[in-house]
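About this split. The held-out portion is used to measure sequence recovery: a designer receives only the structure tokens and must propose an amino acid at every position. Recovery is the fraction of positions where the proposal matches the reference. Here is one held-out target exactly as it appears in the evaluation file.
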């Protein structure tokens, strides 16, 4: 009835599909009246309903005045020859009738209902004195249908309640053994954590002894004015590396077990079991706290190892010229710079792996072509810059060589490659964990803060090509900034000054808008590139304007979790920290350099210790 009322005033609907709706003659009478007034509906499907001859006669009357309807389908109803004849003899040449010859046999109930509707129609067509009896019939018919529908709904509700009760009982029985299994695993996990803490205490004690031993040897060397005992230091460095490797293996084993346990924690629970789920969440939270405590102790231990490593490596070095080695030694170390030793190709040359003579030391050798003036300038710039740097987060240059039309720089070897390679999982390497990514961010900010402040205010250095390809990782995933071929030196520079250049060298996605538009460089120029690195660490996406736009939209709509690297598998405790890192990245990517934080501020934020 409501549809019929709407059709009387509707001016937009052109097709109406009412098949399989149990429409009888009463409903068809209302539709026929609506079609007399409607001028827009062109197609009407009334298949598989309960329409009898009374409804067909009403539709036939409507077709005598309606010139808009062009298609009417009436198959699988209960029309007899009387109703079909009425429809076919309307004289309407516009409307095509379909399915009239495909009718079904009505049930006794349908016959009774349609006979009543026919009587009501007859009453409606008689003088107004019979209108009251017709309406009374329609109301009675509607009340009977309402009672039948209420009965069916009550039966269906009872069936649903019974099914849900059975499902809750089954779910409760299934959860009990799983709950007990999870508690057992948590107990084992706590025992493992206690064992790891004891091992860490023993390692710290051993390290303290090593530090004391090194200090004693330093005093002896100073008293006797002897040269550093490189072989002894190399042996001790190897011993420390073995300790770190053992610790890393144990941490990895613990992380694997954490992931297995986390997978169990993700089993869906019914709402009725909320109390048990809350208890399990509390147990997982306790386990996460212990994991964080272990990770913090691991970071402190590795930091101590790194400080010892840097001290041993550099105690024979002073801020002076880089040692030169024979070019032939590098030819031998790289098998004449063969493709088998090639690590990668950079802007000014190729990088090979090799091993220097004497105590075996793995190195990376950058070979630049002397024919290129730009390459020679990069060689001199990087040589001058790295001769001044001695820092745990700056790549260490060991030697240089020149000969046979080429220039070479010899660096410490970084076995875990670049951050970009690790984000891409090159050579099927495992993805970086969140703790590793956060430490990389802190390491880069520490290294760049040193670059900008080591000689301040007499000199300020601009890297100009800071990117994930130029951030390398050692055996313990400590990050070191490399590739200083584009470094620019600015004497007597402060945070209020700027430097103008027409030489726009660098990598496009990492270059700040002010540099591209006006050639203006400030101490915040490299901060822009660092912001792009932070977004790469959180998403693993390639750098670019699109990545920055996506991050801004995610922060604005509070959907940061949707843009994160799926390989992160973050915990509830880690997600707020990641959100803060994305927000910090966007601060670094501000178009106006004055609105960006300094590396000193970034270091304090990322490494508050």
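Reference sequence for scoring:
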């Amino acid at each position: 009835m409501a549809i019929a009322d709407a059709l009387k005033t509707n001016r937009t609907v052109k097709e109406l599909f009412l098949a399989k709706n149990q429409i009888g003659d009463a409903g068809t009478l209302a539709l026929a009246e609506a079609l007399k007034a409607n001028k827009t509906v062109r197609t009407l499907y009334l298949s598989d309903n309960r329409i009898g001859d009374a409804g067909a006669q009403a539709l036939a009357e409507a077709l005598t005045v309606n010139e808009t309807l062009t298609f009417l389908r009436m198959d699988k109803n209960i029309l007899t020859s009387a109703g079909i004849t009425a429809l076919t003899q309307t004289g309407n040449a516009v409307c095509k009738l379909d399915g009239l010859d495909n009718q079904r046999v009505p049930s006794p109930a349908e016959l009774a209902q349609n006979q009543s509707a026919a009587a009501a129609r007859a009453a409606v067509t008689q003088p107004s004195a019979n209108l009251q009896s017709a309406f009374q019939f329609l109301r009675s018919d509607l009340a009977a249908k309402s009672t039948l529908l209420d009965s069916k709904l009550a039966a269906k509700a009872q069936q649903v309640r019974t099914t849900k009760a059975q499902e809750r009982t089954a779910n409760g029985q299934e959860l009990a053994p799983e709950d007990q299994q999870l508690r057992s695993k948590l107990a084992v996990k706590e025992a493992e954590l206690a064992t790891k803490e004891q091992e860490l205490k023993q390692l710290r004690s051993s390290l303290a002894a090593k530090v004391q031993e090194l200090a004693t040897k330093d005093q002896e060397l100073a008293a006797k004015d002897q040269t550093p005992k490189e072989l002894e230091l190399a042996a001790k460095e190897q011993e420390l590396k073995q300790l770190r490797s053992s610790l890393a293996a144990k941490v990895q084993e613990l992380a694997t077990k954490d992931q297995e346990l986390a997978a169990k924690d993700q089993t869906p629970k019914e709402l009725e079991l909320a109390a048990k789920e809350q208890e399990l969440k509390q147990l997982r939270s306790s386990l996460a706290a212990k994991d964080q405590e272990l990770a913090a102790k691991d970071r402190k231990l590795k930091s101590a190892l790194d400080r010892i490593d840097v001290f041993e490596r550099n105690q024979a070095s002073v801020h002076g010229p880089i040692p030169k080695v024979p070019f032939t030694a590098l030819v031998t170390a790289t098998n004449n710079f063969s493709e088998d030793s090639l690590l990668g190709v950079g802007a000014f040359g190729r990088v090979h792996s090799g091993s220097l003579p004497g105590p075996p030391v793995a190195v990376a050798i950058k070979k630049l072509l002397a024919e290129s003036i730009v390459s020679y300038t990069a060689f001199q710039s990087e040589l001058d810059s790295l001769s001044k740097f001695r820092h745990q987060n700056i790549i260490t240059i060991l030697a240089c060589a020149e000969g046979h039309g080429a220039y070479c720089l010899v660096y410490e070897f970084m076995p875990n490659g670049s951050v970009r390679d690790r984000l891409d999982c090159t050579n099927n390497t495992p993805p970086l964990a969140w703790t590793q990514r956060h430490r990389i961010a802190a390491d880069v900010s520490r290294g760049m803060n040193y670059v900008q402040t080591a000689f301040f205010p007499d000199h300020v250095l601009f890297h100009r090509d800071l990117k994930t390809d130029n951030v390398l990782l050692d055996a313990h995933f400590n990050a070191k900034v490399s590739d200083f071929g584009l470094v620019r030196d600015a004497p007597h520079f402060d945070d209020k000054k700027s430097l103008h250049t027409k030489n726009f060298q660098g990598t496009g996605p990492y270059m700040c808008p002010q540099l591209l538009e006006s050639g203006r460089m400030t101490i915040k120029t490299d901060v822009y590139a660092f912001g792009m690195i932070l977004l790469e660490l959180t998403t693993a996406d390639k750098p670019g304007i699109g990545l920055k736009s996506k991050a801004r939209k995610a922060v604005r709509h509070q959907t940061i979790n949707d843009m994160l690297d799926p390989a992160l598998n973050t915990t509830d405790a880690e997600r707020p920290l990641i959100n803060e890192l994305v927000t910090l990245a966007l601060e670094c990517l501000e178009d106006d350099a004055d609105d960006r934080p300094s590396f000193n501020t970034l270091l304090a934020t990322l490494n508050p210790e």
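Annotator remark: Residues 327-412 form a domain with the Phosphorylase Kinase; domain 1 fold (CATH 3.30.200.20).
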